[in-house]
Every structure is written in C-alpha cells, then in structure tokens.
Input
Amino acid sequence: MIEQEEYTKENAVRIEIDASFHYIKSGLLILKKEKNINYNRHITLQLLASGFERILKILLLLRHKHWNGTFPETEGKKNYFSSFGNGHAIEELLEALVKYSNKQESMQQNQMVVEGLLFLESDKQFREFISIITEFAKYGRYYYVDTVVKADHQGVNPFEKFEDFLDSFYNESEQRTYLEEDELAITKAIGCIEKGAAEIARFFTHGLGEMGKTFYSDFAGYLLLKDENLGKMEYAEKKVSISETYQPLDSRSARFLAVKLTSKSNSLVEENYPSWPFKVKKVKVYFVGGINYLVEIDRKMFALTGRTGHNYKVPVYLKSDKLKPKGYANFLLEEAQKLNKNHKNQ
Output
C-alpha cells in the first residue's frame, strides 16, 4: 500500500514537472512572438509565474524526500507551503532552495553549479524578474480588476514592472530600427529567464542524489543550453521524428520485390475475421527474417513493429489509408509471427 502511494506521488511529481516546463516554455514563446516591448503581458506573466512557482515547489518536495525518504504529508486543509506567502512567494521559494544548496557538497564542489547558484542569488536582472512574478502571483493577477473596483488603487503594477524589466535589456543603436531593438531586448530577456530555469534545473542533476536525476524530464532542454543559444528557444521548435518521413514499400520498387521473393508470407482475407478493419478485402503478412514483420496492403508494404519500421525505414500499418477510421489489427502481427518457427524462443 505504501509503495502504491509513493508511486502515485512520484507520478504526480512528474506531471507537475511536465506542466512547469510547458508553462515556462509557452510563456517565453508568447513573449518572443509579441515583438514589441510595449505590449499587454497578462498571459506571459501568468504562464511564467505558474511555471516557476510549480517547479520550485516540486524541488522543495523532492528535497524533503531526499532528506527523509518520503514525501511530506499535511493534515486537513493545511497548506504545506503556507509559510511561503500561502505558496505564491516565488522569491522565498527560490531562496529556500538556494539555502538548501549551501549544505550540499555535490553542488558546492561543482564550479559550474556554483556559478549557476551565484546567478540565481545575485544577477540583478534575473532577481528583478523573480520579484515581478512574485508580486504578480501574490497580489497582481487581478491588478486591473482591482483598478476598476477599488477606490484609489495604489498597488504595484506588475505589468509595468515587467515592461521595465524588458527595457533593461534595451541597447540603442543607429544601425537598428526600433522594432529590431525591441526584438533584441526581448531575446536577451528570454535568455536571462532561460538561464534561471537552467540553473534551477541543476538541482535535479546535482542536488537530490540519484533520485533527482530521474525527474528532470523536459528541463533537459534548459540544462543543455549554451550561452550562445540563450534566447533562441531552439529547444521549443517542433522536431520532426525520422519515422515521420518513412514511406511504405511500393510494389514497383526493387525492395518490395526482394521481400516477396525471399520472405515467408500468408494471405489474410476479410471473411475469416469478424471485425475486419481494412477497406480492402485481402492483405498479406510477411516474416522477413530475424524479428522483422511486414504487411502488404493494396500493393504497399508497412511495418508490423516499431523495430521493423526502423530497420526497413517504413511506417507502421496504422499509417495506411486503407485502414478504416479507428481501425486496428493486432491479429496481423500474431499471424506473421506464426511464420517464424523461432518466435517463441526470441
């Protein structure tokens, strides 16, 4: 029972880490897209504040597990992070984490990590960013609503403060247009925030023992950033999987003919299967050798396993346009494996 509870909690941690990364990434992508410094930043601040608050809380929970062997528990409605501005004091959460690092030899003996901790503690622009999202998380999320309903509203405007933060990266040049200067300032600001995220992520790899290394997940995108790549957000670009470029073997190709001539095969027809998922009445499965299995559908060959797809550079049968909507055919691989006399020994 205890093991199941720990598994459930660890899974929850992974979900929160994933959410944290995507909040931060999405906030920065929106910031990068909005190329003018003087712009409404509601969504950007909401995403960045939520992302940093979440990841810092998770790291403090993992710190507790690293120290005590289990995650902390609270009773009733008590908030574990109540001493941190009811959980929204991002600046204090970060300070608690940095304070923890002072007791970790694995962090203090690594020069790269020490320099990163110094950045988190004393970089003027990053500290200003943390102050802004803290103010936003604690009091400023409804700043403009409060402006409407509160007489003589005197609260700090986090949106103006964030604009000032972006302005701090501004560097005028007669060689650039105003728009180009805005874009450059925003790129530098993004780089500053990315560096902060990267240094925070080092707690996973250097501050929580072997356990921490199993959790950092997507934050590897920040950990691998080099200074010259800060602000470019290359890690956020959609990467096309090699498998997405695979094409089925066409009946006119030499490879198609080679498979037909050298492989064991068996034809499967619609009448023998109550839930036939194809738009054609017959397909043929092939055992090509080793652990490779293919299926021919309407004169095109597809893979029946991911390994076969990789080896033959062809997509799996689910990519066939002759498969009915929501159709699947687990029996294809079963039938193909019957052609392999050594299958049970593999």
